[in-house]
Amino acid sequence: MPDLIVQNLNQRHVAVDEGQTLFKAIQAAGIDWMHACGAKGRCTTCRIIVLQGMEHLGELSPAEQRYRNNGRLKDNERLTCQCILHGGDITGKVPEQTKLPHQSYS
User: Could you give all domains of the chain from N- to C-terminal order, each with its CATH number?
Assistant: First the structure.
């Protein structure tokens, strides 16, 4: 089973089931993660900065493509509510703008 490793959450490993979005896996692991639209791809608050393993994520969703086209999603960012991990681990981190005040970041 592939893992999401969240670098600035003390290298926390999150197991990601086949066909599961990163956001669902993060929630299942009991991690609080910013999300304003309820995981519907209507905002960018659940984004993650991908440091390694971008090739293991599926194609951009229409929502991600729209945000990428209008400059709200950088080339090294994905929306956790939209992307699915396929066949390999990735390492990412929570962007400064979406860190939660009650969460301890490393």
Answer: 3-97 (3.10.20.30)
